[in-house]
Write a structure and sequence with these properties.
By secondary structure, the protein is mainly alpha-helical. The protein has 2 domains: 23-91, no CATH class; 95-168, no CATH class. It is 56% helix and 6% strand. The chain is built from 9 helices and 2 strands, in the order H-E-H-E-H-H-H-H-H-H-H. The protein has helices at residues 2-17, 38-52, 69-75, 78-81, 95-112, 117-120, 130-140, 144-154, 161-168, and strands spanning 26-30, 60-64. Strands 1-2 form a two-stranded parallel ribbon. Helix 1 (2-17) runs parallel beside helix 2 (38-52), helix 2 (38-52) runs parallel beside helix 3 and helix 7 (130-140) packs across helix 8 (144-154). The chain starts with a helix and ends with a helix. The relative contact order is 0.10.
Amino acid sequence: SMDIQLQQLILLPSKLLGIGGRIPPLVVIDGLNECMDENKQVRILQLISNAVSIQGFPFYFLIASRSKRHISTEFQQEYISKLFHPISLANIVNTDHNIRLVLESGFLEILEHARHQDSMHDIARPWPSQDIIKELVTRASGQFIYAITVLKYVDDPDSRPADQLTTVL
């Protein structure tokens, strides 16, 4: 079970190794929302919060996740809200501006890259339009990974970038 795994794979070895000290090590859980079962996502949060609440727990946790209702609801529960401090990347100043810069720069590289020279020579400039950039920035919701994934998909060497972008849109 997950609670036994937490005990045997994380807590017990950390005690045996004497992990801890002034600045505890950081455990990163990235993409909690990508765990297939919503109940398991909530259970993971419960297990971590139970462990963290133990005096002398030797780790800090950074839990990254898209904002899903069941995850947000769990973080609002009294037992967990005292232990964790949420940070929303969507509200950080200049995030949209920086995502726009990433997209504009990435699309320019795609447009000018030699591998796309034949398929992009007839595309009207600027490409893509500012309206499309604005739409993609909105869809990113403050998440750089969305912008990077779009750029990687559009830059597929075996496809026409304009067609790939149309598929994304």
